[in-house]
Amino acid sequence: MAYKISDDCTACGTCIDECPVDAISEGDIYVIDPDVCTDCGSCADVCPVEAISPE
Questions:
Q1: 41 CA to centre of own chain
Q2: Tens-digit pLDDT profile for residues 4-37
Q3: What distance, in Å, lies between the first and last C-alpha atoms of the chain?
Q4: Which contacts (CB < 8 Å, 24+ apart) does range 13-18 have?
Q5: Residues with Cβ within 8 Å of residue 22, at least 6 apart in sequence
Q6: Residue 33: CB partners within 8 Å, gap ≥ 6?
């Protein structure tokens, strides 16, 4: 099960540095590649607006 980023994302960039497998792509709203995500939760732990949750 991968994590996903909701529309609440502010594209702050905090989660990108935390992802150990580089599964997060930049954009207006960041996106997590479910095929690469290892479900570690590191991104969700650091998201300041709680926009990341398990799918």
A1: 8
A2: 999 999 999 999 999 999 999 999 999 999 999 9
A3: 6
A4: 14/46, 14/47, 14/48, 15/42, 15/43, 15/46, 15/47, 15/52, 18/42, 18/43, 18/45, 18/46
A5: 36
A6: 2, 23, 24, 25
25's tokens: 């792509």
Set out the domains of the chain in order of their start, with CATH numbers.
3-54 (3.30.70.20)
Structure tokens at 14: 């905090």
Structure tokens at 38: 């290892």
d(CA 35, CA 12): 23
